[in-house]
Specification:
Number of domains: 2
Structural class: alpha+beta
Strand content: 15-25%
Order of helices and strands: HEHHHEEEEE
Helix content: 10-25%
Length: 140
């Protein structure tokens, strides 16, 4: 994900703003609208502010089932799902008493046939210095 900073012409301020919404490919062709950020749902094709706000109100009020997606999302339902992703993003920040902070982030894909999980992305301040990036297919 840090490779986004290598794209020529993208201003650092824009990258900082969109990074919370960027992820490693989950294997799903659609966005899980049950846990996606409002900004991600707003980017679905055909989404309008009114439909977005009504959907977010419904999502906060209680469970959303697959049968109600067409009614709630209208034409935006084509890019939406409630199917859970086999990919998980884990972010950890530790703040020590002296003010020092370390952060780690990993994206893990579960349920593969070769192994119980694969590490798709790993950034670790704790053991390798600031912002070290590791990408792999699993820990051995």
């Amino acid at each position: 994900m840090d490779e986004l900073r290598l794209v020529y012409g993208l201003p650092p301020a824009l990258i900082d703003r969109i990074m919370p919404f960027v992820t490693v490919y989950s294997g799903l062709p659609k966005v899980n609208v049950l846990d996606a950020a409002p900004e991600v749902i707003a980017a679905l094709p055909g989404m309008t502010p009114g439909v977005l706000n009504a959907f977010l109100d419904k999502r906060e009020a209680g469970p959303v089932d697959e049968q109600s997606l067409p009614r709630l999302l209208g034409p935006s339902q084509e890019g939406a799902t409630i199917e859970p992703s086999p990919a998980y993003r884990v972010q950890v920040r530790i703040v020590f008493d002296n003010g020092r902070q370390v952060e780690s982030e990993a994206v893990i894909l579960t349920g593969t046939t070769e192994a119980p999980y694969h590490v798709l992305y790993w950034r670790d301040d704790a053991s390798n210095g600031p912002g070290q990036l590791r990408v792999g297919v699993g820990l051995r």
